[in-house]
Amino acid sequence: MRQFLISRGVVRSGVANFKPCGLALVCVLLLFHAFLAAAEPAGAHADASHNSDKRILLLSSYHLTHSWTAGLIETIMSDTQQPPNAPQFDIDDYDAMRNPSSAVMEQLWSEHLIMLKSGQYDLLVLLDDPVIELVLRHRDELPPNLPVVFAGLESNLGTPRTLPPNFTGVFRADRPEDTLRTAAALYPNTKKILVISDASQPSLKFESQLKAQNLSINGITPEYLNTAELSQDEIFRRLSAMPPDTILMLSPWRGLYGNGYRTMAAFAADLRTSWKRPFFVNGTALLEHGALGGYVCNPVMTGHAAAKLISAVLKTGSANGIMPVRICAIPEFDYKELTDNGLDPRQLPHDAILRNRPPTIWDRHRTAIIAGGVGVLLAGCCAIGLLGGFLLISKRNAKRVKDFYFSLPARVGAIAKDERLLYISADSSDDNMVKQAKRLKEIPGIDYEKVSAAVKRVFATGQRQTLDYFSGSTRRSISIARLPSKIFGEDAVVWLSHDNSELREARKQAEESSSRLREQLELWNMVIDALPIMIFIKRPTDDFRYTLTNRFFNDFVGRSAAEVVGKNDAELFQHRETVVFRAMDITVMENGQRENEESATDWAGKLHSLRTTKMPFVSAGGERLLLGMTVDISELNRRINEHKLTTFCLKTLLQEKTLSAGLFEVSRAVCNHFSASRSFIMQFDTNKKTITNCGEYVADGKKAIFSAVSNHRFSARPDWAERLRTNPSITIRDFSKSKHEEFGISWMPLIEQAHLRSMYVNRLMLKGRVWGYAALTFEDDVRELDDGELALLDDLANFINMMLERDRVQRELIALLEQAGRDNEEKSRLLVQAQAADKAKSFFIASVSHEIRTPLNAVIGFADLLRDELLPPDTRREYLESISYSGNALLQLINDVLDLSKLEADHMELTPEPMRFADTAEDTMRVFTPKAAKLGLKLELEIGEMPELLLDKSRIRQILFNLIGNAVKFLNP
Hints:
about 50% helix; alpha/beta; 6-stranded antiparallel beta sheet
């Protein structure tokens, strides 16, 4: 209606300038516009329902870039977002393909449940099976009055009438049997039908439901190939061995390469290299990627149905009484694939949708036909008025055109075949000889031979010619083109020439400047791409979209620079990360530079710890932009956490009263550090062929299983004690792919009860023999540890070995003393001293072995950080001081070890020399004064007059360092 009123105003404003024929034109325009207004869909301008205050939380099972998900969400948003009173959507995805772990999905749901319980949402919308099934398991936790609408559900939940209260939605009904029947009609000579599925739950469900139908297509029973245990090469090898007259159908899910994440489009590209015949599908993802087609559920149809249910629920405030909808798959095929393979489209169902079908004449020229019809109508009305007007203005326009050409700063002319000048004009700088010339060669300063040859080529070929020539010291350009013979009544060409000396010089300078700028840009791009940090620039005025990124940033998100530029964080990262990034961006643009530690998930689904610095700046064009620099500190944080873990384990093993209590605490710490399901320690009795648990810790929600193992018989084959004798560790990355012989059939009940998927075992040694092993297990999902994590497990096993040896020595010493008798106090005192000395020695050795690694790791870590040339001077100075301090500490530890060795070998020698004790004491006090001041302590030296003494200066300094250092370290102010 608004367009009609505007058009009507335009027409009305011009009525006074029209003659009767113009009035007729106005009438035609009004009638045509009224026709368009009448053809507008009914209700197109009706007021939208008042949903402006409604908020909807939409949770998608799959990533928002998934083609099905993107089409479904786009349709729902398009149908429900009718301005000005549209509901507000908050959208998040569970990315179930790359994050299939139930633990990950449960964690995400716990975050969303908090949002739902806060009462800020009026409706919950769920897309596709994984997230729908997750919410159904937790439906009792939802607010009682919160309605739920789902879309794309394939699971068997009974009839729609058995849905939980306040639930409604759109069911999908796949028709794979119809796909196979249509395939058999297209290929009547088929001898075999093969259906491929993968390891995902939806695909396994699809396979089982299809098997349950006991299909027989033209007497052929389909065969099934599940790729869960197959590699890519094995899949294609099996397909290559199939008969050429085999029908191949894929399940509607991706995966298809074992348990790895792989897009269907990528699989189709590889499939076409080994399978020459078109294949059939039950989803839209592979159409136009080599698939012939099949019965598919269109996301647009599903989205329209879901949008209607959403509007109905928002209107009533409840899903009760609103019946769900079932969307059946429809036949959709690729016309190009059909024709390229010589197939008859008439064998398809009558209602089949054909993609890539050549457009009809009406499709190709619809606009032109309509425009032509209207044009004919308008032309008839305008012809009479235009004819009179044309006669009146033609003479006036002719004069204007002539004056225009003569005012051009160029020469314009027309030449006949015999080189007669039919017309010529010249710029003001030309003399009268140019204007008076009658033939081409009479034009002064022209390169006659060059221009004449070009004119002849234009007459001969009809192709335009352009060339340069010198007229004296002036460089001119000339363009020559063919003219219709009716203009001058004979064949002719038109030519135009102009002075281009200044233009060529300017172009040369521009090209040189452009070349220099291009070289500088290439050098700059090489520099920022070579930096081992992520660099990016965002445009705040355009929703903080990226305008520049370097190679490290592009590698992190798994896209090219062209794919990243123009996108914002919501299109590259997970929703909860995007919220944090956006809040920091806004704060930086308002308050200036800021540094923050944050986490982000890369393209492969791995979580990283990042330190990001952001600052606003003004570009050369005056635009305010945001510059960001991000350093991946995951490895640094990992080293810090590993240091904390090893320190805790060492202290625990030394301080616990009993070895068993210490082992349990170590198991707990290791299990929590790796986010494992359980951690436990087993001891062998190789004589009895039994094994006993010495401590098990289980994560929250798990049940202790191995702690009940006591004198459990283990099978002779394999003999884990024997395996660990020659191998320091045993790794089972995936129990589902391992054979029973690898871990012994006697363990099967416990393994099945614990749902083990991955297990990492490190042997424990005592007196050069295998004592047992420490195990770390992951359940429900496979977990692969990297080399650094495996090395950490080796170090922790060595700590336990050391404590086992200490415990053995203590027990043997106690046994010897008990045999000799402990009736008198002297023997008791000797016993206590022996235990204390042994424990002190073990503590010293363990502490030193650990403390040597600590400063050494610090030196290496800070040295790596110093490679960053962008570090500010203060930070660089701080890192250098840390390296110096750690190096001195390392040197002191090494000296302590050497001194201990000398003491044990009775080789410790003192070197007395004259010295002033007060000077050495003052030097020592000066070292610890700054540290004491930071702790709020005050050091004072009180010493009387002392003569020079014969003392070992280094040993006196060592004693003072230890005494004062311990006092500062352990004294609480």
